[in-house]
Amino acid sequence: MSGKRKAEDISEEPETKQHKDDKKEENEEVSAKEEENGETGSPLPSSNNDNENGSQDGLASAGTEDKKDDKDVEEKKPDNCGTVLVCGSTNWDLTGRKNVPKGTKGGSGRNLWSPHRFTPLDGVPVRLVASGSSSVHSIIVTEDGAAMSFGRNEKGQLGTGDLKRRDIPYLIEAMKGLNVVGAACGKNHTLLLTDRGEVYACGDNKLGQCGVGNQNPSILTFTQISYKGPPIVKLGSGAEFSMILDCKGALHSFGLPEYGQLGHNTDGKYFVTCNKLGFHCETAPKRIVFYIEKAKDGHITPVEVVEIADFSCGSNHTVAVDSHKRVFSWGWGGLGRLGHAEQKDEMIPRLIKFFDTQSRGVKSVHCGSSFSLAINELGAVYLFGQTKRTGEANMYPKPIQDLTGWAVRSVGCSFTSIVMAADESVIAWGPSPTYGELGFGELHRSSTTPMEVKALEGIYVHQVTCGLGHTLFVARNQTEQERAKIDKLAEYTP
């Protein structure tokens, strides 16, 4: 029985003042319990203040609370919105290639060596930016949940209905009227997540990475994936595979199974002819069922995983964290990117033993092309794999000493570069050659150790994401001071 109905019953019966006070206390206990169980109308802090201040009438506090909360939800805008900044390569056709492919416009677009304001989005509050370590395209989500795309479009990954590259963000027509809350970019495909837990995909689908139930070569407009299950809460994309997480903590994967990156205990290989290999691709989301622990002698023990809390996809591998803060990894094992102190590919999610020996569990993971990052509950950042193009690789997780004491908020992983938003600063590092994605400026283009990006000093960055050769930031612009600092940055107009 709700607090409101109880209060009505009380007002109908004539009772003594003492009895009324007892009932009022009971009502407050009920409403407090409901709040603990997450049954109140709104998660906003204002809903709790009424009870804390002690409303005189139980009916007033319970009856008007829901209405007040609904009003707050309508008026309250997302706090994490801001201005989009960009740095790195804007020549989408040439990024990651030696020559521009035949039939493309040619090499238009320059390298931005420091963060620039993106003029097509001037005055547009943005709450989310997304790209991927093998992507040369990006997704931008505005404050109202509208999705825009720009960059390379050779396989229709922008969802524009054609194959023309876009230098200016294009409002995705197929997603009009839907509130987009998440996005993930693969090499040539894109996934979008709505607030109803539905997933839409477009782009290259030769290997089933769009999850629409077939292997049609390309999907030019956003199409809902072939999935009937609990609502989805998070998306991830490798180069040619995709991963989705449902609200019950189950992971589902689809696309290319090479290296075991889908986690279904197979790499999907078969002989098409005597000297040609093919792959049995997953064309629709398939749940990952088994998680294992492997001893040094090769003995395998199943691990009971209640639910997955976070995950991240590299080009051909995935790392995930469960609700007990344990870390699992699978896929391509080269250069130690799985953190198992060996270079074997893993076909099933395998527990990373290293984090079991630590006093604190892992809260988030982030994957680049050939490396992985894990951040534990104390804020320590661990790296495994290789960010350099030559030299030794980290075969098991090692803490990055230079980041001790920084509270890392958002991480963007590129092919070999890493950009992080921490406290009031942005930290980046990556080996040469770069396209300017680190934002250090033209004189100091790369760094093998973490360094602060001086151009963004004093600018609070909500979120950062990296593509193959570019970086996007969402910078806070709530005060006059913050807006003045952002206005001092150079402009980039495509």
From TrEMBL:
InterPro entries: RCC1-like_dom, RCC1/BLIP-II, RCC2, Reg_chr_condens. The keyword Transmembrane does not apply. GO terms for cellular component: membrane. Residues 1-114 are annotated as: Disordered. GO terms for molecular function: small GTPase binding. The keyword Zinc does not apply. Residues 43-58 have a biased composition (Polar residues). Residues 1-35, 64-79 have a biased composition (Basic and acidic residues). Residues 81-355 form the RCC1-like domain. It holds the Pfam family RCC1. RCC repeats lie at residues 145-196, 197-248, 249-324, 325-378, 424-477. Keywords: Repeat. Transmembrane segments: none annotated. This is RCC1-like domain-containing protein.
